[in-house]
């Protein structure tokens, strides 16, 4: 239940059910549920950015944000035990809504996670704090710093001359939009993102590039001539040309 829903229910309970003429709810502003349409970049642009990231730990971190649609906080808290290589699934335990979920883990992403993890072998974090010498990862008791990831991505943007303000969270937005563009069911995308409401996921429908075009093609393939044979000589009336 969102904050606005709770506000309305409380107002109804006190003012209608209990009959209290309290004006306090007039001073609590309504929550604006209109979501700002997120920045989305093409798949090729995403990979041009990722390929420009030189440090392996930053590259792997940003890669999993895009390939698994994670929030930065979720990726920071990933543990080796969260990876199920037999089922090719990734378990997200410390999510925004404190709900555990699973997301598909692409084979290439698993390969890169393994390549990076063996460089430090920290038992508690896939992305541990490495220290200034980048050699403290194996014994680190905390995860990678958030600001360091943002700085690394900002540096890449400057090197590539990108004017778009691409952030780590942009990669999660791209994950959702690119899946919808590819025809993945919106309910599955909702599940992968960990959205409690489908309304939140529907935000990405406004920025899908091929959604409508693909829908039209699918409809054309379904609703086509189904083998009906018209009677010889027509229907006994003159068929006039139409305006469409």
Architecture of the largest domain in CATH?
A: Orthogonal Bundle
Mean pLDDT: 83
* Oligomeric status: single chain
Structural class assignment? mainly alpha
What is the alpha-carbon Rg in Å?
25 Å
Order of strands side by side in the largest beta sheet? 1-2-3
Number of structural units classed as domains: 2
Strand content: under 5%
Largest sheet: 3 strands, antiparallel
Helix content: 40-55%
**Distance between termini?**
48 Å
Give the uncertain stretches in residue-range form. Answer: 30-34
Shape: extended
Write down the CATH topology of the largest domain: hpI Integrase, Chain A
| SSE arrangement, N to C | HHHHEEEHHHHHH
